[in-house]
Structure formats: C-alpha cells, structure tokens
C-alpha cells in the first residue's frame, strides 16, 4: 500500500493521487531524473553531500524536504507503531501541501482518532522510516488499513497474496520504474512455491558417487529460493544486497569498514578473521534488513559475538553508506574453517551483486577461480576488486590478472584496484576506495542501473536453475534406477536359489546320502510291504512301521540341507552382486549379516519343511482316495504312503515317468497302482507347487532383510524427479 | 654418533618395510585396493630412497602461490637462482640447489629435477655454509593455483621430499589448501616438517607474535604435536638464518629421509589397522573337536549311520530267505499277497533293485557341513578374512561328494550280498527238510506195514512198530533242529550284520577323516596361517 502511495504521485494513475502528480515537477531535490526518481530516493541525494546527516542516524531534519505539510502528517502518524510508521513517511516524503491534503485525508480515514495524539517526537522516526522499503510495508500494513483505502489496499494485498488483478494495477504503477517490483504474476509465485516443494521433497538416500554433491546442491537451491529468489521476486530492486566475497586475508572486512567509514567488521592478522557475516546498510534501511525478507531464515545479531549461532548474521548500519544498498561482509571461501565456505556460499546465493576481492598474491588461487566460475554459473552480477597491489608491480599484476580474466571469459567485468597500503583502524585511506565508493553511490542513485544489476542476478539465478534442477532430478533418477537395480539383484539371487531347489527336487539328486539309505532300509526291510495291509476281518488303525519316522526325518533333513545351502548361496550372491555396484551397493553390502542367511533361518526352514510334510500327508489323506477296486482289498497307512509319495516326488523326479521305466520308478508304480494315475498327478502337482510356495515365502522373508537395508538408506520417491522437471518447466513458463 | 643413530633407524625401518611388503602381498584382494596401491608405492619409494644417497637431505620449500618460496630459496642459497615475480603463479618448474654435489646426481634424477634447474653450491668454499653440506633444497611450484589443478609436480615432490618446509605468509597461512590437503594428512610428520611464516616484514612485531601464536594453535588443533614455526622475511633477510640453522640441524643428522619414511609408514599402518580394531591371532591348526564335528557332518551327508542301520535291518530280513526255517517261509507264502491282488508283483523286483543301488553323498549337506566349519572357525574375524576362510574351505567342495561316494562304495558291502555261510545254512536246512520227509515216509511205511499189515515190508525196519516212536522222535528232533538252527543262524546274521555295521562306520569315519583333511582342513589351515602371518606382519609394521 505504501508503495502505491509512493507511486501514485509520480504516476497519476492511482486513485486519489492526482494532486501529487502535479506537484512532482516542482520538487527541486531531484534534478537529475525527475521523472524516474522515486520519492524515497530523493533524500538520499540530498543527504549524501551533507556529512552532518551521517551523524544523526534518524536523519530527521535535512531529509524532510517536503516541508511543513509533511511534518504535520508525520505528527499525526508518528505515534503509531511500525506498520503505521512505515506508512507515514510515504506521505511525509510527498513533496508539498497539495499532497498533504490527500495524505491527510487518507490518514484520517484510516487512522481516525489516535492519529492526533502526539506531535514532534515521532517526526524523526517517521522520516527515517520513510526510506524503509515498500516490501516491508507490504507485509506489515495489511491489517490496520484494511478497508479504508480502496485502490491502495488492493495493491497491497496483491503484494502479499499475489492476486492477479492487483498485479495488473501494480504493473501500471511500476512502469514508472521505482523500486516497485515487477508485477509478480500469480503463476510465477505458484511456480516458485511448487519448485520449492519439489526441491524440498527430494531425498537422496543412497550413497552413490555424487550424492553428497547432490545433497549440497539441493540445500543450496533450497536456501537460495528461501533466502533470495522468493523474497526477491516479490519486492523492488532496492535496497540491493552486495556481497563482498573472497579469500581469507584478502581484506574483505577492511574494504567494508572503509566504505562504511567505521569499524563494523573485525579485521586483523588472524586468519580466518570474519566468522559471522556482517550486513552494513544505511541507518534508514536498517529496519528493512532487520525484518529480513532476504535471508529470511537467518537470525540477526546486533553485534558479533564469539558464540554466534551458525545461521546468523550481524546487522549494523553506517550513515556513510548510500541508501538502497547494503554491504554484506562474508566469511572466506578458502580457509581451514570449512563452515565458513558454506556460510559464504549461502550469503553469495542471497546477494544481488557480488564484489569479489582478491589480492596481488592470491589472484591465481584455485578457490578464487572456482568462486568466479560459480558467479558465472549463477549469472550473478560481479565486480572484482584486486586489493593489496604493491605500487611497484601494479602495472604487471593488473595486466596479468586482466588477461587471466579475459581468458576466463570475464574480461567485461568491472574491476577496481586497491594499492597495498597501511591500514589504519581497520580502514583503508579514503583515496584508495574512492572509485569503489563512487560506483556504490552511482548504484544507489541510478535506479535503472541498480535495477538492471539486480534483475540480471535474479535472472541469472533463475537461468541457473535450468541446469541445476535437472541435474538434481537426474541424480535422483540415478538413485531410483540404482535402487531398482539393487532390488533386482536380490531378487535374481533368490530366484536363482529357488530354481536350484526346483532342479534338485526334480532330478533325483535329493535321493542320496541318508535319504537313500533310509529309503533302502524302509523298503528293503519289508516295512514298505507292511504298510499295505489286506483288508480282512478286524482292522484297527495300525501304527506306521517304526522306520517311517527315520525316513521322514531323513527326508526332512535332506530338504532342509538343500534349502539352507541354497539360501546361503543366495545371500552370498546377493552381496556379491551388490558389491559390483558402485558406491551405494558396496556400502550396503557391508551391512553386517547380509552376507550370510539370517540367524534363525535354520529354524524357519525346519518349520517350513515340517509344515510341507504335514500338508502332503493331509493331501494324501483327503485327496488320495484309493481306487475302489483297491480299497476293497487293501488299506494303507497314510503316514507311510505320504512318505513314499514324497520320495517319489522329490527323489525320482517327474511323476509321470512312463511306467516300468526301471527300478527307479518304484514309488510311482506303487502309487499309481494304489491311487490311479490321474489322482497321483493331481496330488503331485499340488504338493510340488505347495513346496515351491513355502520355500518362496521363506525366501521372501530373507529378501526382506535386503529390502530393509535398502530402505534404511531412504527410499527415493520416483515421482519426485518428474515433479521437479515439471516445476522447472512451470517456472520457465511463468517467467 | 650420527652413524649409530642412522643405523639404528635403518635397522628399525627395514623389518617394518619387510612386514609392509608381506601385508601388501597377503592383503591383495582383501584390503582396499587404493590402500594396497599406496602401500606398494611407499615400498617402492622407500626402496628407491634408501638406495640413493643417504648423505643428502632433500628439503622442499612448499607453499601457496605468492607466499615467497622462490624468494626464500634465493635467500637461503644466497643466489638469484629461482626467478621471483609478481605475477601469479610464478614458479612453474622445480629448482634445486645442492650443497655438496657428490653423489647427488642419481637422487636428483630420481626426483626428476631437470638439468637446467639444478644448481650446486660448493659448500666447502662457502664461509659458514659447511653445516649445510648435504642439503638439496627444492623450490617447488605452488600447489594451490589454478595451474596446480593440472600440474601435480608440487604434489609429487611433497610426497617424496625428506623434509618439507611449508612457506606460509600472513595472508594465506590458514588456507584450506595447505591444511586440509597436506598438514592434516601428514600428521605425525613433525620431525620432518617445518613451518615458515614468511613476509613477516609486513607485520608489526605484535602482529607477528599473534600470527605465530595463532598458527601454532591451528597446527596443534590439526594434530601437529610440536609445530616448528620460524618467522622469516626473504626481503629483509630476517629469520633466514634461523631457518638455515633448522635446516643445518636436519642435514647434519642425516636422518630426515628415514624419519620421513617412518612417518609415512606409521601413517599408512595406522590406516591399515583402522579396519581391524585389535590384532587377534587364531589357532592355525584345527582342534580335535572341530575335526570330529566336520567328519560327523560329512558322514551324515553320506548317510553312514543310516546305511549301517539299513545294513542290519535288510540283512536280517533277507536272511530269512536263506537261513530261515523253510516251513515258516512256506507257510507265509500261503498267505494272500496284497501286491499280487493289485497286479503289482514287479514291485518286489524293484525293491530288490533299489537295495542293490549304492548310496552317494548329498552335495547340499556336504556344502552345509563345510560352511558350518568355516563359520565356527571364523567367528570374530574380520569380514574379508571370514570370506577368505570360507573360500578356502570350499575350494574343493565340488569334488568332495564324489570322493566320499567312492570311498563309501569301497567300504560298504552291497545290501544284496549273499555270504557263503548263508548257502551252507540253506543247504543244512534243506537237508533237515529232506530228513524230515524221509522220516515221515518211514513212519508212514511202519504205519502201513506194521500196523495195518498192508503187506510184507520190503525191509525189517519198515514194518517194525517198535521203531515207530523212535521215528516220531526223529521227526520232531529234525523239525526242532531246523527251527533251532534257523533261530541260531538268524542271531548269527544279526550279529554279523552288527559287526559289519561297526566295521563300516569305523572304516568310513577313518576314510572321511582322511578326505576331509585333504580337501577341507588343509586349505583352511593354510588360510588361517596366512591370516596369522598377515597380522603378524601388521604387528611388526607397527612400531
């Protein structure tokens, strides 16, 4: 809303601001660019030459060029707290009486009674607040002024909410160029929010090569979105945040101090010197930075302390700095304290302009050039300061550095050279930084230039998303693919084991060792014959012959051995396959216990096999209906018969071997005679598939251990990559 | 004295390097390949360096670009040998200055210093420089400029120099490129590392003191226990003499090369043992219980005891056909046979055929037996070695089942074997039957001729009624004898089968034991011995 108020005078488009337009040309304080100049900036010009203003941070007196009318308004408004205070200065800044009327009206409307209360004391504050940015007003003023101001209100809400029509309105206003943001379309806001969600939702669980980088890149993108992109698209280009970055000992803090005209950041011979970033701004901008749209997640500190929490920044102000700009003194990018590098990079990602400081002895350092590359990648606007240049070698060094920059494709970048000189009180002699100060001042007053710079950086960042985000998505896809591969490795290993078991239960290899001996015992000792009894006369239920139990146990043991050996092999194979996968597979394979079957596997196998045997007995009991002709003559012991059946099924292989295929087919022949070929085939198929299912279940449990190990590393969301692509695309469209 | 201490160091270093060689040999495929490569390189480097001149000490001036290495190099050598400049990076090629050129040639060749960058100081002629005799001073290119990203000269020489002088300056002394990449990596190299804070003329004395204190602090935090920091200024010459003194001390001791190698070795060994928290020795020979366990498991895999039981049972049953009482057998035949009624008569032949087939070992059980042995042995061992032992145990597991089966077929009698005495007993039984039939006929004749007077008996005894009781008695006793001998011979069969079974089990155990020793135990023991050697070497490589 305030922004609206500010714009309207220049524009004449806003409701009820007609008077202001007529007044504007009269104002003498902004001679250079009357049309483009914003009210908020007029005073800067005014103040700049007047050093005494610097001493009074509130800058009340001189700045109030608008005169008495403004004063009056301020008086009314001054008692109110921040939001209102922010409101006032807009009016106060309005040049003259005519606007006064309008403004006064508004004030009365909006802040009926209490506005009159107190007089003078607030004037200074109000004036100071006048220069705080519209962005602030966006947020703060919403509540108190709701309904009272039609058009302005609409605009205001638009800022907060991003509604479309308000955006249009703003657009009309914003053409004028003031630090109004370009109208933010709902689509862009939406696209950015979507992007943020998409990036936040990424999860790189597997430690494949490059995942650490991907995680860092994700954090960087997220921080940049929060700290910079999202706030920045919603606000004007002023104030701009200028990050001073460079190697340790390059003199970043010294330059900041010199520009700020005071010791705002610690300097010294200890390396690294600066640990907590320092923001220095003009006192008028202090509140804006304190509120923090930019670097929203970063805690503000009044002054540097030893134990400053990692995510914090010192905020201080100095009147020596021009308005609309803030200097951000960052920690180094190359000292032993690695946390500094991260902080520095985060700060740089949130900055509108980068001032890269290097020295005559450092300009060839690799870290410096990687920072320059980063600036290039991000499309950030850059100026380079070559500091600590010994006067004698100035020519050579500057030329050489220039050539290197040129070769690197940075020949166009603006450069400043600072001589090696004695530093007094942490500051350089004024003469050394005159150029730099000029440049800053120009940036401060020349909206277009600043605008262009800020926009360029913002665009550069958005452009960099075109490559950074797909890179993230690609990495995620790699992870998803790798996970699928790892999963299929396990499956393949266990499928192989299952196939081996299948094979072994078909080709008769089970009928060896103890099983065969027991079977010979059972058959040879006549127990086999004894299981068949003639149905005659009295016939109680006969106990199975004694050797049945032995055979059954042997059969179970044989099957168990088969399964256990297969499981062991499968576990080894799964791990071996994982080992061959780079990075993540290797690490996961090292998970203790994966290389061998689970501890309780033996018990589980026993249970499985016993259950199967019981099941087969049950099958024989219920489905193995004896041929009627046989049943008349013979009864048989189910227990034994099921054993004979198992031997036939597992030991001799396929049940439908032709009759009389030799001595091997004894059980089949017997069973076919007893049960009939049809029935035998049915039962065989059922029993076989049941065994397969049971062993499959056992294997599934085993497989679960691998899946758990995989999952503990985090399950990448397969849709996340698509969402990210989509969000990136939407962002492009919205731009 | 110098010679003594040198010999001492060398004496300690040699066995340790030998141990490292052993580790490299045995660790192949078991250690991180990168680590093995590194160890092999260290061995190679140590071998080369120790062969080359021990009278010379290679001192490398290393540091970031612009810290004044070349200036310092010139200041120490007293000559303008290495070009200095303001452009960064300045030095691209390593320069060397040798005090006392004799014997230094091969060493410089090994260091790959180009001829045109070699300079010699005839130290004897220099006043006050004699204590530097034997010094080879290298001026390295920087390691942190963009050029160094593609040129690893500095990195290479930092790895091989005997003594490293880090040239730092007030601007860059805390750069990560020095500290993270080298200082932290070279902890434990205190004896062969010197830090120089160059360009001290840029600082006030107070600042310099603060700087030095801060640097020492930083170094201590990074694990340099006793940092040697010398503040110098190549331009004013301040501190250069102190540096020379430090160098002279090292050069005179002639130990830097050994110390450097020792420090490298220490570090490498530290990394080697990192994976293995404690060095545990295992018993290289398998104890009796484990062997017995393995043999038992293998015997089970081939079913020895089951076969023994089968032997007993089947013999007992089959003997009925041979040594049983024929009358009982005939009586049994009269009973209806269920199989016959099912027209399954051939089953009996099948059973006979089944019994005739020989038992072979179950491969899955053999597998598991071997696996269990390896698992039991290796509990607590590092994973790679567990795998190694397992592999060793399994090395011949594919042949094992067949070998076991062969042994068994040699030892085990076929279940359908018929011993000679069964035949004899069968003949005896039939003899008794014949006798019974004969006495029956006799009794019939007596009854016919003697009692019913059917005619004249052909012989006296056939008609003599008085003989009849004796004949009856004979019949009964023949039957009794048959029954008795059937029972007795059955017992004999069982007894013999029991004996057979004992013999079988005993023989098989012995044979399986031999097989297991050959095919499982020996490879395992070899592997265990290797394991012990490996850790012995590890212990020896440690100081």
TrEMBL record, chain B:
InterPro entries on file: GTP-bd, GTPase_Era-like, P-loop_NTPase
GO CC term, one of those recorded: cytosol
Keywords, ordered alphabetically: Membrane, Transmembrane, Transmembrane helix
Residue ranges constituting the G domain according to the UniProt record: 59-178
Example GO biological process: ribosomal small subunit assembly
Cross-referenced Pfam families: MMR_HSR1
Transmembrane parts of this sequence: 427-450, 470-493
Gene Ontology MF terms: GTP binding; ribosomal small subunit binding; rRNA binding
Name listed for the protein in its UniProt record: ABC transporter
Source organism: Microbispora catharanthi
Higher taxonomy: Bacteria, Bacillati, Actinomycetota, Actinomycetes, Streptosporangiales
